[in-house]
Each structure stands twice: as structure tokens, then as C-alpha cells.
Queue: 2 jobs
Job 1
Amino acid sequence: MKYSNRNLSQRHYVIIGVFAAVGLVFLLKLFSLQVLDKELKISADNNVLRYVTQYPARGKVFDRNGKLLVYNEAVYDLMVVPGQVKDIDTAEFCRLLKITPESFHERITKAKKYSRIKASTFVSQVSKEDYAHIGEILYRYPGFYFQIRTIRHYPKAIAAHTLGDIGEVNRDEMDADPYYKMGDYVGKSGIEKFYEKELRGKKGLKVVLVDVHNREKGSYLNGALDSLPVPGKDLYLGLDADLQAYGEQLMHGKIGSIVAIEPKTGQILAFVTSPTYDPNLLVGRVRGENYNALLQDPSKPLLNRAISGTYPPGSTFKMVNGLIALQSGSIVPATQFHCNGPSSTPIKCTHHHGPSPDLANAIENSCNPYFYEAFKATINNPKFGGIKKGYEYWYQKTQDLGLGHTFNTDIPYEKSGNIPTGAYYDKMYLGSWNSVTIRSLGIGQGEILVTPLQLANIAATIANEGYYYPPHLIRAFGDSTAIPEKMTTRMETGIEQRHFQVIKAGMKSVFEGSHGTARGSKIPGITAGGKTGTAQNPHGDNHSIFIAFSPVEDPKIALSIIIENGGYGSTWAAPIASLMMEKYIKGYTERPAVEERMMKGVINYDIKKKKQ
Amino acid sequence: MTDRNSIIGKVDWPLLLMYFALVIIGWLSIYSAGMSEGHHAIYDMSQFCGKQMMWIGISIGVGFVILLLDAKVFDAFAYWIYAGVVLMLVVVLVYGTATKGATSWIDLGGGVKLQPSEFAKLGTALALASFLGRQDADLTNRKTRIPVYGILLLPAALVLLQHDAGSAIVFTSFIFVLYREGMPGAGAVMLLAVGAVAVFVLTLVWSKTTMLIVIGSLFALTLAYYLLHKKKRLWRMVGVYAFFVALVFCVDFAFYEVLEDHQRTRIEVLLGLKDDPKGAGYNLHQSQIAIGSGGFWGKGFLQGTQTKYDFVPEQHTDFIFCTIGEEGGFKGTFLVILLYIGLLVRIIQMAERQKLAFSRIYGYSIAGILFVHIAINIGMTIGLVPVIGIPLPFMSYGGSSLLAFTIMLAIFLKQDANRLKIL
């Protein structure tokens, strides 16, 4: 550059000045940090900072009446920081902890593999006695310290599947959410899993100075870096603890489920699956062992049949077909179809009644030919212009009634059941199918599968005369924050109320009519509507099914009962349903004989044979 | 000059020695920072210190080759090198692998990854020096300035597209060389930038209203001074204040819309607007604890506790200065800062003695680049600058940065050694 003159050359002093000024500022700041600031000193004798996690209390769980279902108990975990372990008497230590040297080696290797500098759990849930004893001499073992945390306890020992359990986080859970550290507990099933974020609260942190003798010398920087743990939210469930316990008693010795819903809110009142287990088995150090035992049990107690069992709904599905037939205008309440009894075609009738029942009669008597004809009239209704479009309408209405899909509220591992699509039949029968091909759908058999939860929801929808709230467990959070909107969103079926009233009347006569299939289970002083079902089971005796609601005028409870291999719906399911409703509405029952028969009744399952 | 062929006799030994001192202190610190995983030999190739040793060897080798080359090649090939790094930046945008949110690496296979943005600074310095070194270059003329903007902005924009804001900031360092070469307004831009940073920070710490009152009062005072002393260029002073007022109103927008979440949090933590010792504030707290715990004398080599055990993240790369602070104490940090300032001053002095404009401009360019790296990196570890992930020259672990900085310095050494041949 030509104009490069002396003036410009002087500018290098400015630049050197800038550099020097920044260097000076840095030196001043460093002097202040390193020499003046006494707080940041950690004395030179090799002190280290220990980051102790402050575990928050996990939220408690209450039932709808404020009865405690789940609370916390303090336990002590022995933690290890492998990088700080040195010169310890391993043999003595093993004796104190009652572990073998091999186990010691295994544990320390696992901890090292996780991290040499972050703490991991060495022995979880040391007993209070051991904690007191070992705690005194722990200073001899640098790198080890105790951490207090809590485990779950279930005072009522009910609703194991619903409440779920917590267990140590696994690799995937740690990867998915950096909040979790090795040895943390996380909800593994039930509401413990679904409401994990609400229940867990927020961990706090305490930074303490630890000297070379493994002794804590107090909080670092006067706790400036510490944060307090935030306790988890309490949960108030819709569950009624007494009703739940009663249901579990009634189901003793039987395989199946009871789902009871409060129709006006969709809150689940009782969620019984049988066989069940004591939730206290799956806490603490015994969890793994007990879990494996339950897993091996051939009666599958870990399976929540209320959401994971799928069954053909049998005659309880007739209500659905009746409603869709009415809404599509394919029948009216007075419509009569001819019934030839056992010699009817293509579906025979298993009940004895008059030759030409109307709709209410057909429900009371559970007439198979009537509902086959009603189903046929729906899908062949000329207004749809073809069976495929008619079937499409029918399919859509089953979806609106809450079948064939999950509700996705707060119940993990829910199954969706099965309502076959038209496309499925096209594929199955190469496009040529008609109402006779799929006749089983008319009476709730064939490809149709529903979960007990979906069935209970059908009962609630009928009780409500046309709508439902997606069934859910939560009623409120302890801090009064709103529950997810999805659970308080009213779902409309698009079927008119008057049609439901016809069905409801028919279901009332199931209890009260002279031929009613549940007339033996009438509840003293309370009206109820119901429908029996007997689902054919290719593997053994038929499943006994019942759906019901009560009182008819202003339903407070709607439920579904399934007793596997229980035979007719009226044998087991209907009496149990009536007792559940009576118990919930009155608070007591007046039929000791029925109650005793149900509670003591044991169905003999040849489980080993069934397994083959 | 008996030994005409020996580069050893002509090379600037003070600069070279400071370079070696920094590289070796860095290497030992990386070794010490890696001690948490058990004791390893310093040359253990599975460890960071071993790999760094390999890169030191490669860098010295490459630097030596550069000293043997003809000094003129760098001017001659400046544009080609520039084109090459720009091409690399484009390639990394298309094929790069992401590390910590920034897509700035090219995987060469065999575990070797290259960070083109480290070399982009070198290429840009060469191209700028070559362009401004021409006889007809005149920064007071727009015909010169516009290509200069182009040379600087193209790689800066490409680096920014990789979400590597730290490396992009380094391109602001060229303001020093533009100022030295007499670009009109460069000095004013530097002052305005300092003022703008002050306005930005104070608006966040105080509030918009307070800040407007403060600026208003200052304006009134300045205006009174101007009127009393009948100063000229009143409009220019008014313009500056108008700019600051406009800036106050832009702060919210810039802070909440332009900056990314993590960048915003880092600034909030630095200014004490947000306390988050486990989250974004973690690095800052930990690095200050580590440095502060060193005291005046330090805990001694390999005796640190805070810079091992992962308390300080990235302790071998961006936070290597913590290890020096903890183990070396104030005497260690004092020495390192002295070495850096000495290195920078030496480069400036050497640049001033060059006969070729190319060499001088190149010298100022690398001084600027090194300065911004050092200022941001050390400023970040001691809590004066928000956390911006750029390496500490010659010391941080990382082959790309060490090699690039070594090449930068070697080219300058070669230019300097050759200066006496220029008539």
C-alpha cells in the first residue's frame, strides 16, 4: 500500500494497548478469584466436593374418598464413587454388608463401568440397623457414603396393577431422560409410570466438602450451589378403595376382571383383575425375586386383564347392534323379527320366548336371530347403497362407541381390541362377502374382540344415554392443577338419546322382566340395567360376561365383569355385578348368601393343561 | 549471514520459544486433566494426551516444512488456499458430522476428523493479506473495501451456517488489521462495538427505562458540553446517541428472537440474571471453583481435584485453562497470560518491521485471530464472557486447531525470516 505512512504505523500502539488492557483485566480477575476470594478455596489437603442428591418425596396416592393407597418409607442406599475408593479392607467391608467378595467385585466393576467419578448405588436399601451400625465406621471406607431415599408402601395392598410399581432405571430410561441417574427409581407400570413426571418431583443437590478421611465437613460455599428438592405431586384417584377391595374379594378364585366407571365423569371406580398380588411384594430389595416368581406363575398374575385381555363380547354386543340399527333407521323399537328358537337360521336362538319379539323383548331374552336380523338390516339398508357402505357406517359407529381403539388416557399398556374393517373382509373373502358371511358380528362373536375397559365404557355410555368421558384413573392432583383436558372432554356417540332410552328400558327388564337373564340378581331397593353375555371360547368353557349400570334413573356406576370359563353370564358375572353396584350405592350389601357363594366360589382352572 | 540456507539462524527465536512453551504447558495440562481415568503414560495413544502428542509432532513437522518452502508461495497461492477452505466449508455443510449442535466436522475416516472452520481463518488471513498487499489497494477507496468485505463475510457466513457461532465471532478480529491499514471508520467501529456491548449488557441487567434515562442524561451532558465549547460535528454525536437508543429497543428482540435458547441462558447466567448451578451455570460455576481453588501457588502438577472427576466439563478442550488455574495457581495463570500477551506483542512488533505489506497485514491478521480466541476462551473460563465454545490456541486438545494455529504462525515466521532478502 502506497499510503502506508508513519501515522498508520503509530496505530500499532493502540492495538498493543488493547491486548495489554485485556490481559490486565484477566490478571485482575484471576487475582480476585485465586488470591482474594477465600470462598472458592478448597484447602490443599486433597479435599473433594461431593455432590449429594437430595431426593424429593415421591407423591402419595389417595382414593376418591381421601384414603391413603400409596406412601413412602425411608430407606438407606449405600453409594460409591469408584474414583475415590482407596485402601479399604475389603474382607471386613464385605462382612459388614453381608455380601461375598465376588459380589463386592461385581458391584464395584459395575459402578466403575457407569462412571469413576459419579456416584452409583452400591447396596440399595440397607436396613435401619445396618445403617446405624455401618454408618458409624464408614469413615474407614473412603468413597462410600449413605444416601437416604424412600420406597413405596401400600397400606391397603389392593389395586396392584392400577397403582403399578417403581424400580431402578435401566439404560434406555437414562438415555431417554437425562434427569435419571444410575440407581434412581422410576415408575415401571400403572399410574406410577403414567404420572412419573408429576409423582417424582424434582431432585435437589447439596454440595458438601469431604476430607481425606471421608468425613463431611459441611456444606460448600454456605450452600450457594445447593438446591432444595421439590416434592412430587400427590394424586387423588377416582378409585374407591372399599369397592376395589370388595371386588378383589369377590374375584377370588376366579380369572377375569371387573371394571367399574362413574358414568358422569369417566373416572374408574374399581379396576379389578384376577388373579392379583400384593403390591408390597414389588418394593425394595425383594422386588426382583418376587417379580420373577410372579412372572413364572402360570395363572399370569402380572397380566392386567382389564386392559390387556381381549374377549369376544358375546351378547353384550347386542346393545351396540341395537343402537346402530335404531340410529340408521333400519329398525324402530316396535320392529319384530321372527325367531324359530333353536332351529333359526343362519343363527339359532338359545333362549325360549315368543316367536316375534320386539327390540325390548329381544334384549330381555337375548334373542340371537333378532340381532342378526337387525345387523343385516343395518348394513343392507338401501339408503347406504351397498353392503360395503353400510358396513362402513356400522364400523364407524362402533368406533364412536369407543370400540376398536384405545382411549389413551392414563392407563399404560391398554389394548385396542378388534373391530374388523371392510378392507379386512375384502381381503379375507376376496371381495365377495355379505351379511351371512359376517353374521357372527350380529351377536358379538367372530372377529370382534373387546377389552373389559371398553365394555365398561359401553355400559357407561348407555347409562349416560349417548356420551362418555374417556375412562381414566386420575381425579385430581394434590396441588389442584388441572387434569389433562383429554380426560374431561365429553365424547359424543352421534346416536340419539331416544334410542338409548329404548335400550336402557330393555336392559332394565334383564333384571326385572319375568324372563330377564339376570332376574336372579335383582338388587333389593335399587333399580339396575344389565345385559348378560356368554362368549364362546374355543379353548374351554365359555366366558361369563355381564355389563350393567345402576340406578337406572340417575346412574352412579356402570361396570363390566368377565369371568373366564365362567359359563353363562348369569352364573357368576351377573351376581358379582349386582353385589358391586349394591356395595357402591348403599355402602353395604343385603344378600349374605349370594355374597358368600360368590366369594367362596372357586372355578377350577386346569392351567397347566391350558398352557399346552 | 554465513549460513544462507539455514532457516534456524533467521527464525525469530523469542516467538518460537513462546510457542513451544504454550504447546508444552497445554500438553501437560491435558495429561493432568485426563488422570481421572487412572494412571496412564503421557504418551499413551488411547488417551487425549497421547493423541495430542501425535498432533504436536505433526504440527511441528508441517511447520518445519513451511519454513523450508519459498516465502513467496503463500502470497502467490493465497487465493487458491482461500478457495480451498471455502470449498471445505461448503463440503462440511453438506457432508459434515454434528458435534454438540454444530455441523463443523469432516470425517476423514480412521477416527480422524477435521474442522475446516479452524483452517478458514488461516485462508481468510492469507487472502486478505494478498489482496490488501497489492500496490493499488487503498482502503479509503470503495473499490478496495467492497472486495475486502466479500473476502471476510463469505467464510464467516458459511461458518455461521454450521451453527458454529463461536468460530464466526472470530472473524470480527479482522477489524484490528483494517484499523491498522487505515480503513476509515475502523477505529470508530471498534469504539461503537464496545459501546453497543455495554448498552446491551446494561439494558439486560437494569431495564429498558433505566437505560433510556441513563442515555438521556449522558446525551444532555454531552450536548451541553458541545454547545458550550462550540464543538463541530454535532450531528455525528447525535447520531451515535440515536444508535444507542435504537439499540436499547432492539435488545429484547435480539435477545429473545435472534439468539438461540442455550446462548440466551449462558448470557443470563453470566450476568447473574438466572441462577442455575446444575444446568447452564454448571460449567461457569465449576470452572470458577476449579480456578479459584488453585490459590496463589496452585495445588501442584497432577494434584488438582476439581479438573479431574468431570466436575469441569470439556476440561481438556475448551476449559483447559481451568487445569492450569487449579494446579498452577495464580503464578501459573499469570505466566500463561504473560506468554500470550508476549506472543501477541511480539507478532505486532514483527509485523511492523516487515517490508512487504503482505507480511505485515498477514501478521496483524493472525494476531487478531489469536487475540479473539484467547480473550473469549479465558474470559469464558473466568466468568467474564458467556460460554462460547472455541479453543485456547496451542493449548486446547484438538488436532485441527493446533495444526491450523501452528501453520498460521509458521507462515508468519517464514515471512519474517525472509524479510532481509527483500530489497
Job 2
Amino acid sequence: MTVTWRDIARKDFEDVVRSKLLWGITVGFVGLLVFFLVVGYVSGNADEASMGELLAGMGQFVVFFIPLIALIAGYMSIVGERQSGSLRVLLSYPFSRSDVVTGKVVGRSVVVAATILFGFLVVTILGVPLSGDVAVVELAQVTGITIGLGVTFTAIAVGISAATSSRGTALAWVVGVFILLLVIWEAVAVGIYYVVTGARPGLEVEAWYFALYQLNPLEGYRIAVGQVTNNYVWPMVQLGLEDIPFAEASAEDLRVTSRVDGSLPFYLRPWASVMVFLAWIAVPLVIGYRRFCSADLE
Amino acid sequence: MSAIEAKELTKHFGDDVALDGLNLVVEEGEVFGFLGPNGAGKSTTINLLIDFMRPTVGSASVLGMDAQTESEAIRNRIGVLAEGIDLYGRLTGKRHLELALKWTDGEQTPETLLDRVGLAVTDAERKVGGYSKGMKQRLALAMALAGDPDLLILDEPSTGLDPNGIRTMRELVRSEAAAGTTVFFSSHDLGQVEAVCDRVAILNDGNLITVDTIDGLREAIGARAELYLRIPEKPDVDLLPIDGVSDVKYEDGRLVVTCADPRAKALAIGQLLDANVDVLDVDASSVALEDVFAAYTNGEVDIVHEEDTDDRRGRLSEVLG
């Protein structure tokens, strides 16, 4: 028997599940979901809410919390071991550097996926009695897409962790990428639209404008969950750069399906979001792996 | 087949030359000391051998395999205790050994390995995060022994060890060598190397100064060992006839015995005691590593007096004791 990435994934899982930080964030995430559901129940809104509405409402928090959890779980995975020196112990055994990257991304993805499953289990236990709606298919689809989002950000974080040689650099990259995708992306998309058409995007807008959003895994998640639940997933951060009367627009008006004329093109379907996830998994990992492979480990 | 072979092995970090054209052969079955001060290029060499780093120029082979292209196969057969390591603080010591044994297909039990490095089983049940530096070093040494490697590469293995731990480590190296394992052992401490190695390479500032046997090294560094004895009055004993004593001087209540052979020092003290001379204190000069370099480059060893220096790095009171 020779060693493989599975050995690293197992060791890593064993190590990470003992991390207090990760448990803290997970408890925070699940606690927030519970709080959200209970507030909805107490205020009476949840009475009439369908499971789809609950899930779409959760999506707004998921878009912030799952990437946060995944990035925190992943950004130290390789560079942390590299800086502390435990990587020098690990690599004194017959592992290749690709074993390290693969094992790390799998190990941490399992941790993140387990967190998500736990969160959704809580949502199901609380949400089903609240809404009186057992929407198994919707729940399964949203859980699946959410795990996809979690794995994507884990891969981004592990890729960054493999590519950098110090914790500080890795942290700077992770924070930068998160802010870019969460906050700045809208400005980029609106900016491109403005340059092309000479006007800000209105409520009714060309489909290609949303393709710019679709390239961002966070927005891809919102678009996909919106379609699966047949609801509008509010963004976590909105700059309000679009030419839309936000005060008058209802959630229904803001949905991609409402804003695009006719049926949605293929690139705005949920599976396109999955392709975007795959691209965001592959590219950072390939870049990280290549840099890690050629690095001198001091 | 040699255990380790380096050909023109060179490593630059930017403009800094860490290792400059190292040519070295370590034969199978020997305990090979790799001696040099901090920053001499010892760790760089080891990093190149286990593919933690890639050479700027040159190549190396370990157990007949190329250090770069066949690194996984090499690491399958060697045990490494690298420098600047850390372990997994959230896992227990025993778990570390179980993993190491699994990764190396080792047939030993964690308990055997613990016993060999002198770690208590109760300590092994604890998480490594609470270990002292010495305990971590012992555990890492035990991990290197997992899977009964053909070659042990130990980079400054005495780091963080107390005298007891250093003795355990030495015994371990001797027993591994007796079992046929090749040991490649780096240290900045002459005494460490002298105590366990068959042959020694001396490295300074990225350059190989010499490769010599331990006897050759002893001769070079023992050439002018001095013994200082605090004696109230000039003793009426002639020490010059002792084989290996080359000079005797008495000044300011101190007898200075210069010995060409370090073994003569004990004889000198013995003879004084036999003559009932009241010896108040005994001290010996130590040879700094820098002086060993000088011995090989200039053919002479200079002595650093105990009281003349604050820098205790690379001292070797043991060799002369």
C-alpha cells in the first residue's frame, strides 16, 4: 500500500473537526438560522410562508455565511501547515504535493458540507412544522446547491492557501476575493453595462447583463435558488447602482425571470450556476497547485 | 550503491548562495555527520535531498534514486526528522505515531516507538499542543523511526532536547546503525557528531571544507587542548613525561597543561591527585567550530579560552573532556 490523498483528507478532517473556531462559526450560523425562523414564526409571517419562501429568505444569509465558513475553514489549510512546519513532517512521508492539495480540499469540503447539512437539518426540523409544507425536492435541491457553494469557496480558499507562502498574504487574498464577490461585483456589472449601452440597467434589462452576475458564484447561487424556490433571494449587500425605484419594486418585480423579457436563456438556468461553481473550483486549485508544486518549503 | 550522493549540488536564494557545488557521497550503513554552524547550508542540503527544495544547479540521489523525480519512492524508504517542524497540536502523541505507522506501512507498535525515544505512554495519550519542545522533538524522532527506514536523515536532532534526551538520541542512532540503518546526522555541535559518527563532512558558508573520519577529526581538534587547574602553590610534580602532554606552565595560581592528545588530560589530573596535590578547580579549553575550519584550511587549530568568549555556539567541551 502506498499513501494517497485520502490519507491526508482523513488526517485533515480529524484535525479540523477539533478546531474550536470552526465550531464557533457553525454554531453561529445555525443559531442565526434558528433565530431567523423563530422570529418569522413569532411575527406571524411564517404561518403563511411556504417552504420555498423560507428557503429563499435563508438564501440571503447563506450567501454571506457559507462562503465565510468555507473561506475560514480553508485559507489556513496549507499555508498554516507550511508556516508552522507541520507540512515538513507530513511531506517527509511519501505524499506528493498534489496529494496535499487534493487531500486538503476534500477534507475541508467534507467539513463544510457537514456544517451545511447540519444547518439544513435544523431548518427542516423547524421549517416543516412552521410552514406545514414538506417540500422534499426543493429542500434537496437547495441543500445541493448550497453544498456546491460551500465546496466552491473551500476550493477558492485552499487554492489561495496553496499559492501563498504566508498567512497574512493568504488572508489578504481571501478577504479581497470575498469583498470583490460580495460587494464590488454589482459595481463591475453595472459599470460594464454602462460602458456598453451608455445607460444604467433598469428594471427590465437584457439577459446578458445577468450573465455578468452569473459569473460570480454568489450571484449564481442567488439566481439558481431563486428559480428552484420560485422566489426572490435578496442580496446580502446591495449598492443600489441600478436604475430601479427600489422603494416601489416588489420582490416579485426584482426576480431575474421578471426582469428578463421572455423565457430565461440557457446561461441563466440553475445548471449554468453549477458550471460556474465548477470553474471557480478548478481555476484557483490549478493556480494554487502549480505555485505550491514549484515552491521551496523552508 | 551509495545511500546519498550529491553532485555539484547548488542552491541560490536570490543573490544569496546557500549551497555552492556540494559533492558528497555517503555510503550505506555508515553514520555520517554533517557538521557546520547555523546557516552553513546543512538544512538546505537536507531540504534538497527530500525535495522540499529544488536545486539551482546540480543533482542528488538518495538510495540510488533521483531526489527530484523519484522523491515519493525515496520518502517511502527513509525516515526524516527535519528542522523547524511542528506537529498537530489537536491530535494526541499516540495518534501521530499511528498515522506515521499507517503512512509507512510500519509493523512496529506506537508503544515500541514511544519506548525507544523515552516518551511515557501517559504523555502519548495527551494532545501534542501541550507538549514541551523536547517532548515534541522526541515524538518527531519516534515518527521518523516508523516503518523501519533504510536511511535516517536527522537535521539537528538534539534541538530542544535536555541532556537526557540527547543521550537517548545518541543511543538510538547507535542502535539503528547497528541494525544496518544508514544515518545522516546534521549538527552544529562538534560533541554530538564526534560521539556517534563514523565519518564527518564539515560545511561552512555553503562550502564543503572537508570530509574526514572521526579519528582524523579528533586529531585535528585535539592538537592543542589545554587544561587549567587551580592549585594554590606550584606543584612539585613533573607532568611532561606523560604521553601526550606537550607543555606545562604555572602562573597566578593556575597550572596550564597543554596536551596534544586530549586523553592526556585525565592522566595529568590523576598524577596530581596521586601526589596529593590540592586541586581546587578544573577547567578545560574548548575548540570552537570556527577553529576546526581553520584547522582544516590552515592546518592548525586555535584554542578558544573558556573565559575569553561569551559565544557558546559550537563549543565542544565534551570532545576535550
